Structures are given as structure tokens and as C-alpha cells.
Amino acid sequence: MYHFIYTKIYQLHTKPAPATGIGLFRLFYGMVLFQEICFLLYFNHLIFDPTPYIDVEFPLIPFFLCLWAIAALFIIAGYQCQYALIVSYIFWIVFVQFTPMQRDFDGGFDAFMTGAGFFLLFMPTDKAFAIDQLRLKLSTPFRHYSQHQKPTVSILSYHLPILICLGFLYFDSAIHKLFAEHWRNGLGAWLPSTQPYYVSAINMSWLLNQEVLQKMIGYTIIIFQFSFLFLFSNRHLRPIYLFIGIGLHLGITISLNIYPFGLSMLIFYILLVPFSWWRCLAKTLRPTQPLLLVYYDKDCPLCNRTALTVNHFDIFKCIEFKDAQTFSNKQPALSSIPLNTLLTDLYAVDENGKVYSGINTYIRILIKMRYPFLFGWLMSIPGIYHLTKTIYRNIADNRQRTPCNQDCIIPNTTQCKLPTFYDRLFETDNPRLRKNLKTLSKALFIICILQINSSLHYGLLYRLNVDTRNNPMTLTLTQASNSILLLSHSFIGITPHALYLHDHFEGYDSLLAITYTNNEGDEAWLPFINQEGRILAPHWGRVHSMWANIAVTPNIDVIRLNKLIMKITAYWSHRLELNLDDTVFTIKIKTNSAPSFWVYDLLNQNLSGEWSNLGTVHWKHQQFHSNLSQMLLNHASLKSSYWPTVTPE
């Protein structure tokens, strides 16, 4: 197996590929990460305080979240990529392992994002759409941007993350699905979408009521996940897997309220896009002729750096720079302007032959580049225009014109750029490269063993109810397997992917919500769960997981339920400016159905149920009191006698 892995790795490494997909993958990973950090900042008291706003155990959490957000912004911009990715990876491990974020607020994608962050450490993330690439150009003696070759990377950097983060995940998940009755019935995608706690604000019942279509989707997902690991690299089948995967995770993002999980999976499909599609897309989006010709002083270091910088951000290639000394006499629109005058400013000519100079050239550059056009319009506003014009004139009139060789280099740019792990592993001499590839093969072999351990332990032995406690040897192996899984889960993100199976929904027959008595004595719904039983935005993602997967389950743990109700009531009392000691919170309950067989219009049936009072909770002197323990016991004993059941049609 090791020899096979080494041979494949060596073959893939020798094939060059454009860096476009890697750059976009890094950019969108940073965006998903940044939105999740903003979510953690917004709910930091609910997630991290033992008692929200009352017992604040981690006062520096917002500070460290802000540091993490800065690292995420660096990842998006591609600035100091290696440093930013290392910092982000450490933050993922620290926050997941040492805060309540994982214990009570598991977002369902923490392990996945940790694994993605781990592989990003070894990917050529600074080759495209990255400020680091611009800094590299500016740190060398000036060459016209047309002389710079487009960076290429090894195709291996595309295949490895897809293989491990998607292929292994799908195969492991498919094994678990075979043990779930509703998945075997083709209803794996349908059932979660009929549960009020799980659906988004969009009512998809028109689609859920198509039984044949839903079963086709369910069985397609199983086939897709079992086969993805082995067939995704086939260039003829890749578009099929690309569109099915995008449809699957886009559907999760839109229809369910676990959008971070859907988005985090979607970004991996950027790596699956065929390279010819990127070239075709670039050809479609870029104009056949430049929209603006800009004439610059080739002997001015500042002008040369400006040309390189604008070209770097001009992703649609709408701007073309020409040196005024050589090309100005070939432009009829500039023929009447003396060369000495041309060299005092930055002149530009658009496709209609109109001439711009000075700050107006920069405004036209921003507008013609398309995506930053708002900044161009903003600079045109009176007041802002005159301010920017004054700043421009101060810089332009005081610049020094010298032959552009070493003077065009920005000092210390090379020294402050940390060589990426990718550079050290793959962009080296041949003998060392072979040694590195052998080391990588061994690492990949170990990762395969770790994934097999997880899939065998929890995908087969656990699901088959194999008892390993009676035999000392099997007990020791089980304990060792658990320890290995703990390490692989923490640092690489390898974990059992048993999501939304029968052990999650079987017996999920009750929904809980919370109301309170307002100052007028009227009962009002806490803005957390509405009258239909939907979890309201922005309580999606990990807050949804806290309530729907931990607090309210088929077998409710009263201690944990009370703990999480305590957190919700304390948090929203502060946000709504309620007096805790004078407010009584009522816990509402209504029936819910989660069958493993087809039921027409089940979503609307679950949304339209009637609520009844289960019990109350209240606060006295910042102490939480609840009578839910006895109420839940009474409810459990009476439930079977009056709770309606749903039968297959």
C-alpha cells in the first residue's frame, strides 16, 4: 500500500496545474472562518459564559476572537499566509478543546474546519489572489508585469485535500448510513428537512412532498458518497461529482439551518473544478481589448510599483500599462501633449479616446476594474475628490525619477516573507524532493490507517453491537483505538461522520420552546423558537446544535436541559432588559413526528401542532430554579397514552 501511495504521489506531483483554484479555496475558507468568528463574537456570552452576563469566566475571549478574526482577514487577503494559517489552526484547536464551544455548542463542522486548516498549512496558498505574491514581485528588481510567468503548482495540492477531507468523510458517512432505516428507505435527505428545529426560514414542503424525487435524492447521496473516493479523479466523471456535490451542499445551506456546515463543504468543490473551466471563465469575463490604457514613467520607481500593484488586483485584465517614453507617440489622443508633461502625471486613454490625468486616472482605473467601482465613484464626490487630489499632487510632485533597477525594490519584503511549508517540501532540489515525497507518502499512509480505525471502530463494530469488553485483548485494542481517535480528531479532524441517523431521530417526538410573562402580564415568546417550532435566526449553526442535538433529544437529560435553559433565559433576559427575579419563563411542549417511512406533508404537520405547558423556570437572587424534572417524568409516563402516532400511508 505504501509503494502504491508513493507512486501516485510522485505521478501527481510531476503534473503542473494553475494556482487559481488553490487561491480561491484559501480565500473562501477565510470567509467562512471569518463569518464563524463573527458568530462567536455575537454569541460569546451565551457560548462561553457559565452563566451569561452573570458569571463571566472568560473575559479575554472577545480579545482572542478578535485576534483570530485578524488572522482570518489575513487569510482572505493572502497576506503573510503561512503565519496566518498557523495562528488560525492553533486557535481552532484551542477553542474547540479548551472552551465550551465543543462540549455544548458543537457546530457540526469544527473537526472539518480543523482538518481543512491543517491541509492548508501545506498548500501553495500564496500563489494566486494573494498579497504575498505581489510582495514577492515588488521585492525583486523591476520587470514589466507581462514578463512575470503565471505561477503553477503541483496537481497533488488539489487532490490530497479532496481525497482526505471529502473522500474519506463521504465513505465513512456512507457506512453509517447503511445502518439507518430511513436512509435505507431513501429518506435520508427528506427526514431532517421535515423537522421544525432543523429547517431554515424557507418552506420547502413543495419539494419534500414529491416522494419519488426525495427517494431518488436519498439513494443518489448514498451512491455518490460510496463512490466519490474512488472516482472523483476521473476527468470524465469529475463534472458529474462536481455538480452533484454542489447541489447536495447548496441544498443543505439553503434548506437547513446548519449553513456553516454546508458552506464549509462547498468550498472544497472549488478544488474539483476542471482547470479548463477556469480558463474558459477567464476568457468570458475578460474584455478582448483593454478598457483603459495607462501611460507611466518607466524611470520612476513609484510608477513601476503602481503598475505592478494595479495589475495584481486587476483580475479581469481591463487595464494595460505602457511606458510613456516608448508608446505615447503612437497614441493619437496624446500626440499634442509634450513628453515632459506626460511624465509629470499618470495619463490614461479609455476605449472612446478620452484622456484622463492625475487623480482622474486612478478614479477611472478603479471604475474600469469593475469590482472596486464603488471606491472610484466615492473618490469622485466633491470634497473627497479635492482631498485625494491634494494628496496625489503632494506625492507625484515629490517623487524621485531614477533608473528603475534596485530602486524599485521595497526594502525588507523578502526577509519578512516566511517560506511556506509547500515551498520547503516541493520546490527544492530533486534528491531532497524525493525524500520529502517519501515522507509525505508515509504521512498519508498513517492518515489512511487513522481513518480506517475510525470507520471500523464506529462505522462497523459499534453499529454491529460487537461486545469487546469480555476479552482483555479486544478491550485493550478498543481503548487504544479510542485514544488514537481522540488525537486524530483533535489535530486532523478525523471523526465518525454519523450525522442525522436513526439514533438521532428515533423517538424525537417532542419539541420545546420558551415563553415569558412581559411587564403587561401577557405571555410573549422568547425570540429563540417561534410558534411553529423553528429556531429563529441568527441562532443557527452551533446554537441550533446546542438546542436541537444536546438539550432536546429523543432521551432528554434533565440536568443538561436545565443547564442550557438557564443559559438561554439568562442571555435573553439581559438582551431584552428583563428583570430576572420578576420574570417567570414557561417551557412549552408540542408533538413532533420523525418516522423512518414516507408521510405526506410532514413538515407542515410538525409546524402546525398545538403547544401545551410543560413546566416553569425562574430566577431568584441570580440563582436558577426549575421544576422540569418531575414534569418530564410525568410527561414520559403519560405520553404513550395520549400522544398521537403517525402510520405509513
**Ranges with pLDDT <50 over ≥5 residues?**
640-649
Secondary structure class reads alpha+beta
Average of the residue pLDDT scores: 86
Beta strand %: 5-15%
Largest sheet: 5 strands, antiparallel
**What is the radius of gyration?**
30 Å
Q: How many β-strand stretches?
A: 11
What order do the strands of the largest sheet run in, or round the barrel if closed? 8-7-9-10-11
- Kindly state the percentage of residues in helix: 40-55%
Q: What does this 3D model show about the protein?
A:
This protein has 649 residues and is an alpha+beta fold. It has helices spanning 2-13, 20-42, 44-48, 61-77, 81-98, 100-103, 110-120, 131-138, 156-177, 181-184, 205-208, 211-231, 238-255, 259-266, 275-285, 301-313, 324-327, 339-342, 359-368, 373-379, 384-398, 421-426, 430-461, 472-491, 502-505, 542-551, 558-575, 602-607, 628-642; strands at 16-18, 152-154, 292-296, 319-323, 347-350, 355-357, 510-517, 523-525, 584-591, 612-620, 623-626. Among the domains are: 20-149, no CATH class; 287-408, 3-Layer(aba) Sandwich (Glutaredoxin), CATH 3.40.30; 428-496, no CATH class; 510-591 and 611-642, no CATH class. Strand 10 and strand 11 (623-626) form a beta hairpin. The radius of gyration is 30 Å and the shape is globular. The two termini are 50 Å apart.
